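[Amino acid chain]
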Amino acid sequence: MGRRSSRVSTFLCVALSISCSIARADSVKVGTKVTPFELKDSDGKTVKLSDVLPNAKAIVVDFWSSRCPVSEKYEPVLKKLAQDYASKGVVFLPIDANYNEPADEVNKIRTSRGVPYRVLMDQAQGKLASYFGASHTPEAYVITPAGVLVYHGNLDEIGGALDAVLAGKPVPKAETKAFGCSIKRP
């Protein structure tokens, strides 16, 4: 029994390792081009990256949650960033990837928090969160007008990345540690 259990455990570890490697291989990395995506927002309207890119100086994708206290704590930070950078051509695309947060709840929370931007819904399977490699809320990404991912990390340090992109310079610190609540997948 012990030997069989050990073989099963070894097999499962190898299988999980392979599937994690495959998942990571399919995800976007800093310095590479983002595959165009489209999602519906919490009002049911479709948003396509290909429609946003031509008019944006930069795009911030932030994995957001209506229930996460850390995401709620960072809401003023995200709103301030949107206030400071939207006039400079930066587009903000918060994405709720938690399967257990329905659109009507997201809209209710948006209203109560005074959120000025729409929230995209990636809930059914969290495919976009998986593609970006997002595991927390909040967790942010910056995409250039050319569609290249140049920053991944927390909202505290995203300003330097945005300033660099707007100035046409390389991002000085392309990756930082994101933290918060885990994204809930089915």
Q: What stands out?
A: The chain has a mean pLDDT of 87. The CA atoms of residues 161 and 171 lie 5 Å apart. DSSP finds six helices and nine strands in the chain. The chain has two domains: 1-28, 31-182.
